Automatic annotation (TrEMBL):
It is an enzyme of class 6 (ligase). It is found in: Cytoplasm. Its EC number is 6.3.1.2. SMART domains: Gln-synt_C. This is Glutamine synthetase. GO terms for biological process: glutamine biosynthetic process. The lineage of its organism: Bacteria, Pseudomonadati, Bacteroidota, Cytophagia, Cytophagales. It comes from Jiulongibacter sediminis. Pfam families: Gln-synt_C, Gln-synt_N. Its main location: cytoplasm. The keyword Nucleotide-binding applies.
Amino acid sequence: MAKAKLEYIWLDGYKPVQSLRSKTKIENNFSGKLEDCDMWSFDGSSTEQASGGSSDCQLKPVFICPDPERSKLGTPAYFVMCEVLDAAGNPHESNGRATIDDDDNDFWFGFEQEYFLYDPETNLPLGFPAGGYPAPQGPYYCSVGSKNAYGREIIEEHLEYCIQAGLNIEGINAEVAAGQWEFQIFAKGAAEAGDQIWVARYMLERICEKYGVWVNYHCKPLGDTDWNGSGMHANFSNTALRTAGDKAIYDKICQSFEPFVKEHIAVYGPDNHLRLTGKHETQSIDQFSYGVSDRGASIRIPIAAVQKGWKGWLEDRRPNSAADPYKVAARIIKTVKTADV
């Protein structure tokens, strides 16, 4: 009887940043299909999601893909991303995926996930000397060579596993600071974009275990210094944006965001005031602006959309690296729908 390893992955109830949790389920003669993944349960009292007297929470599988690394050992293995439900089968209050109003998958999302790789011995990014700093920002972005690029073996392995897993990863690059990297994920459907980001994050964490480093998703881990923070820029479109053909439609959708600055910041990741300062390619946290090719704006209109006759997408540059992509997507969709275009 053939065995398969299914790694059920979910988000816990910790605040202000939820952590990834997982456990392995062994199945016999598993088809590899999502519809054949059973519901499962876990102890919510150990994850800040239930009390000890009524501790059961349920895992509802929502996305599946192969686990390339574990499969190398010989037994077929899969990642199974799950939503958390309470004992009655209702979405748990920590379940951001359930808040997405995109049943027809009209909204497409591309997330640019930035992060730092940290050395646990120095508690600093790779490439930072103990107790000091490397050369200032400038040579690290999209760099090559051991003087400027740190941790490439990790991010290359991550890229390859994402491809083997069937995730729609669209690229990687070294970022502005030493030890800082980025990967990009795209999906036609807000929920699946979130699913794939979370699975990609999980894979990165697992790979880093082997190398003895850890992933720092804090948006400004180096504090009040002249080093860039980390974002998770949200590129998004719907039918209106993809087919607009009119600058006025882009203006109307961009302007619909201005009344909801606080609502967006509330779900765009903790400590964003440290990152959204008006410096380092950001707009101030309490202001709103948009513009063509403007990386210092809250929302950037890509030049490609203009060149295609105002048909394309928008980029919200405010979500930070620790934000929940489900909640980011849900808020963007809710705001765009107020534009009524």
